[in-house]
Amino acid sequence: MKQKLFISIELAKLMFLSGLLVFFVSLYATDAFGTRNVFLMETSLSPHQVYQNDNSLPHLHRGDLLHLETDYSDSDGEASIRVLNHRGQILGYVPKSSTNIPFALLDQDVHLKAVVRSIDKTKGSFDKVKISIFQVL
After folding, report:
1. Neighbours of 48 (CB within 10 A)
2. Which long-range contacts link 18-21 to residues 24+ away (Cβ below 8 Å)?
């Protein structure tokens, strides 16, 4: 005996409207350059690993693009997120308290980027460099 697929009118309308919503969001998410940055969070670099040698700090400026990558080599068995400059030098790590969202996205191969928001050489290592993290669409 064949079973018929029954969809109510309300469910069909909801599916149609959600499809339209996804379509219009995808149109909005691409601009003339083909990418859009969605702000996720702001954070400081982790204090225990920031600037192992301070000679990379003078080459870092507000607005510089930074790269994020997962690091599975932690001694405590937890993965962390490395922050690298354009030369591939490790500048520091995203603090463990801030890694939930970025780590989940990086783990799913979602493209993220970080940008230097501010640099204050007079502050302690934790507050010296603040970064903003974006998802690239």
Report:
1. 10
2. none
Residue 121, Cα to own-chain centre: how many angstroms?
A: 25
Q: Are 91 and 85 in contact, with CB atoms under 8 Å apart?
A: yes
Q: pLDDT tens-digit profile of 7-35?
A: 677 767 777 777 766 666 665 555 555 67
User: Phi/psi zone of residue 88: left (φ > 0), alpha (ψ -120 to 50 degrees), beta?
Assistant: left
67: CB partners within 8 A, 6+ apart: 83, 84, 85, 86, 88, 113, 114
Give the pLDDT confidence of 96-118 residue by residue, as tens digits.
777 788 888 888 888 899 999 98
Which of 47-61, 62-76, 114-128 is the least confident region?
Answer: 47-61
The length of the chain, given as a count of residues? 137
How much of the chain is helix, strand and coil, in % rounded to 5? 25, 30, 45
Helix (H/G/I), strand (E/B), else coil: 11: helix
DSSP 50-110: TTSSGGGGGG--TT-EEEEEEE---TTS--EEEEE-TT--EEEE--GGG-HHHHHHHHTT-
